[in-house]
Specification:
The model has no long low-confidence stretch (mean pLDDT 95). This protein has eleven helices and eight strands. It starts with a strand and ends in a 6-residue tail after the last helix. Strands 1-2-3-4-5-6-7-8 form an eight-stranded parallel β-barrel, surrounded by seven helices. α2 (24-33) runs parallel beside α3 (52-61). The chain is an alpha/beta fold and 242 residues long. Bound molecules: pyridoxine-5'-phosphate. Pyridoxine-5'-phosphate (PXP) is lined by residues 6, 8, 42, 69, 89, 91, 99-100, 130, 150, 189-192, 210-214.
Length: 242
């Protein structure tokens, strides 16, 4: 299972004082040195964390893979087509939310998402749709030519009752297996951390996890190298069966 790092919150901290530190670009490059498989950033319409300059610098300097999370809106689509990340992950976006809440409703927004996928494909950008582990949403993603889905793991991360956690894991496992059968790439993320990754990383049909907050937060205490290495080790040491 690959491990991509979302560095948005390095920029959040930088922006808190309007200064230049901590520098998300330096953080991304160090993370690559410690073996991360890709860098993820979300260019929000309100630019609350990374901004366009960051994005363009990352495009120049990231050597692994750049995954741009974005809303399906024209302004951002234009920037994406110009910057050309390896992957664009379409996410729902509401101004007031603290973080991305829930997956995209592909079925209800089929036309706008399809047009966005077509536009990104015309520039040779692969497209992932951030959705709930739901068969109908996966079918819709396939119908409009998405290359990947990213399964929203927020519910899994928030559950506290063991039985409910295993039910949700099973729902994710079935969804990932189904998506693979349709030849979709399968990523997953949101709320994954050093406690809940162990059970999650046993899922065989997930190609890649996208993790941000927990790793950035831990790196404040133990440093970037250790924070990344510890997460990588937890992912790699997961058993193949629950
Ligand atoms: N995947 C998507 C689509 C997201 O929006 C986020 C949050 O920015 C993440 C993964 C990473 O979530 P977290 O920061 O909780 O690890």
């Amino acid at each position: 299972m690959k491990f991509s790092l979302n560095i948005d919150h390095v920029a959040t901290l930088r922006n808190a004082r309007g200064e230049k530190d901590p520098d998300p670009i330096a953080y991304a490059l160090m993370a690559e040195l410690y073996g991360i498989d890709g860098i993820v950033v979300h260019l929000r319409e309100d630019r609350r964390h990374i901004n366009e300059v960051d994005l363009r610098l990352l495009r120049e300097l990231v050597k692994t893979k750049l995954d741009l999370e974005m809303a399906a809106v024209e302004e951002i689509v234009e920037i994406a087509c110009d910057v050309k990340p390896e992957l664009a992950t379409l996410v729902p976006e509401k101004r007031q939310e603290l973080t991305t809440v829930g997956g995209l409703n592909v079925i209800d927004n089929l036309e706008v998402i399809k047009d966005t996928i077509d536009e990104l494909h015309n520039t040779d950008i692969k497209v992932s749709l951030f959705i709930e582990p739901d068969i109908e949403q996966i079918n819709a993603a396939k119908d409009i030519n998405a290359d990947f889905i990213e399964i929203h793991t927020g519910k899994y991360a928030n559950l506290r009752i063991e039985e409910e956690i295993y039910d949700e894991l099973d729902r994710i496992r079935q969804a990932a297996k189904y998506a693979k059968k349709l030849s979709l790439g399968v990523n997953a993320g949101h709320g994954l951390n050093y406690n809940n990754i162990k059970e999650f990383a046993v899922l065989e049909d997930i190609d890649e996890v996208s993790i941000g907050q927990s790793v950035i937060a831990r790196s404040i205490f133990v440093g970037i190298e250790k924070a990344i290495m510890e997460m990588r080790q937890l992912i790699n040491s997961a058993k193949t069966k629950i």
